[in-house]
Fold:
Amino acid sequence: MSAVPGMDHLVVVADSLVQGADWCERTLGVTPGPGGEHPLMGTHNRLLRIATVDHPQAYFEIIARNPAATAPGRTRWFDMDQPAQQSAVREHGPRLVHWVARVPDLDAALAAWRRLGLDRGEAIAASRETARGLLRWRIGVRPDGQRLLDGCLPTLIEWTGPHPAANMPESGIALHALALQHPQAGLLGRALSAIGIARVAVAEGPANLCATLRTPKGAVRLESSGL
Structure:
């Protein structure tokens, strides 16, 4: 577990993991590593380590609805049940839609945001089986599954066991920069400061989450604008 708040992972939604892996190979020049299933949400993923000195535990998640899973008894996270998002990734391919920030005390972080008028949802327990054992975490998820501030406000996570990046091999990908742009940049900046998140640029403008990655194909910019 880490006691230091920080950028935890980027979220790329795909129509299927096959589509997501193909996109990753074409766009980033690498094959994504294995992930696993999320029984609570009926989703599954593949992962890549993108850690740097500034973001020492950062990783990259390609996530899709799991057709083999039982339908969840709740709305999936990251707006994955929204028809507009489903249609966009089906027709135009996987997209960067969100990011997740790591905090040492999820309840305190969610309370800090509620004082700013931001309801990031309830703290729920989740887990995923891996070859090295069970990963456990607590995560703030709204009942409607929505992201807030067009995906620029992160979902908050508190790891209650080992961090998954610790066992990920080097991928050849590194996160160079993460930048947020939003019409409510002031509120977004205050929200990040309230939970101790630094090294993420915030500017005013049309909503957009932009991640710049160093890859075997050179610098690659992924943006969320359009979703």
